Structure prediction request, 254 residues.
Amino acid sequence: MQHSFDSDNLRNLLLTLTYDGKCFHGWQIQQNAYTVQEALQTALSKIIGDSFDVKGCSRTDSGVHANMYCVSLKTAHPIPCERLKAALNRWLPLSVAVTACSEADADFHARYSCKSKEYIYKIWNAQERNPFLEGYALHYRYPLDVEQLHRAAQAYVGLHDYTSFCTLDNREQGDMRRNVMGFSVTRDGNLVTMRVEADGFLYNMVRIMVGTLLRVAQGKIPADGISAIIEKKDRQFAGPTAPACGLYLNKVRY
Prediction:
């Protein structure tokens, strides 16, 4: 679905969404799969016509959720922000909601103006499945020592080349360095949450970080071995890519 518009007198709006990724094949438009961007553009077409441009703050993969996802919308349509928010929530599928809409500076870009993003990864750590978390958390039935994992995860913090923690394809080229500002592992009953903030993320980076920590929990990677994996700059030394179901884009900071 392509949209064109006159570049004169454009408004630049910031839309904030939340969505259930279980229903979508990620954010970005694809030819043969239903995505969040397609759902949003279809709703926008019903409200303001086809003269607009949208830019998302991040690619998210199939099955990944978003507690906060930001979109910059350029349009000449005069609809007030509150009316646009209400209209979108009428036309969007129930798996997506617009939580805020505001005017933004002309040069604001949902992706390139971003200072940092925070992801969380949820693990249901119990022998029994939780049917209410099916598709929304990884079920991991073996013991997890969250204090050990939290200590091990501090090796991620700082500016590093994360080639070892990236699924390489044509989208990842050039500088593989990212600045990880924090990584925590906490427990609330049976729910273990891994939380990471960085200035940017490579393809599957968070899920590989999580998979590597689970290998630490299993004793297959030493608790102090993450720094060495980073230094190798080789994907084969890190753990597996954790399933998408537990991953949420949690916060976007500008």
User: Anything to note?
Assistant: DSSP finds five helices and ten strands in the chain. The mean pLDDT is 95. The first strand starts at residue 11 and ends at 19.
